[in-house]
Fold this sequence. Notes:
With about 475 residues, the protein is an alpha/beta fold.
Amino acid sequence: MSRLVVVSNRVPVPDKAGNPPAGGLAVALHAALKERGGIWMGWSGKSTGEAEPGPLSIMNNGAIQYALTDLTDRDVAEYYNGFANRVLWPICHCRIDLAEYARREMAGYFRVNRLFADRLVPLLRPDDVIWVHDYHLIPLAEELRRRGVQNRIGFFLHIPWPPADVFFSVPVYESILRGLASYDVVGFQTDYDVDNFAACLRREGSGDRIGGGRFRAYGRSFIAADFPIGMETAEFAELAEDAAHDRRIREMARSMQGRDLLIGVDRLDYSKGIPERIAAYEAFLKGNPEFQDKVVYLQVTPKSRSEVPEYAAMQENVASLAGRLNGSLGSLDWVPMRYINRSLRRPLLAGLYRMAKVGLVTPLRDGMNLVAKEFVAAQDPANPGVLVLSRFAGAARELDSALLINPHDAEGTGRAIARALSMPLAERKERWEHMMKRLLSHDVTHWCADYLSHLEPQRPTLVPEPAP
Ligand code: F6P
């Protein structure tokens, strides 16, 4: 079996005991790396404060080697806070209005990708399989090909791919498309994303599907298909069951005083629809006064990308919406919404999901949304809660037994919340069982193996590749 080389912007480096950080993706990729041996390369998350990026720092952990690079302040500003998170992120989430195009930042994005390629090439062996993750590193394969790398290279996009008209608003859209065509396998979260990508190539006249999940574009043939990411379903379900013994979970349950819990867990990001969710909760409470004082909505929202102005502005906005809601509807002994602005550890989260009667996952647009899957996996099979899920989350393609809502429709979402809270046990069980079956058969290990089976060298491309 060939070695695996994973490249991603951030690298989940293990703790001193060698254990990878919690979370399905980190665990699954570490398992694949451990089995095959290999490298995980990426940004250290630090900047040098100097004019030059630092040297590559290498750490060995059994069969896995971590190769981390510091970036300069300018790199972080232009590549990460700039083009990746102020152009590609908003565009892929259909927010042209929030995209800030600056030539300097676009150049910085391509410069950092060249740096990654320069640093990776000396570490590679001819039969390594390379798997690049996410929108920060789209041009990496093209840069590697320019340096003579002929290995199989795959890419997986964790976020959505937008419709052609939205994507074409990026001034360097053609370089991005050509970058994707340099991979052997381009993985998306859903079939909708693949269709949007195909439409971009067609409209541009640069390529199209050639059948069997294959595309031909910019003189190369490659696979582009959906590989919906899964989670560590069985392990998370166990975590949630064990959490019943956790002191903090018992204290939380006591503090509810018999009220039902609704839960939302999201990074503080405008794509997550948090203000719209608060409005829907308010519409629900006003439209169903019999539920007032009978429910509590817990929103757990760690801060994210605070150096990007749109994210900083959101912090103020969500905090003031939560305060306004509690001020107008709360009473002496009832706080309708609890708002926590930091992350919670996974075992505690698992216990909270299990305690909740309703999971609110209502992004305006989301590649997959693993919170939706985690909420389902954490439920008590004998008395499961109900998932209220945005139809604009990738997860809705698989979890179609959730109550699917349009997050822009506050009243409609409010009605779905009321329905979820009143749903009979038999219907809750039937919906949950259907979703859980899917999550167990399509977990993150299945996802990883499925993707890699498409990337393995024994799967030749239909059309021979031109010499690099
Ligand atoms: O969902 C896309 C993603 O980049 C994830 O890979 C990552 O965990 C998350 O967003 C957080 O982003 P950041 O690394 O910018 O904090």
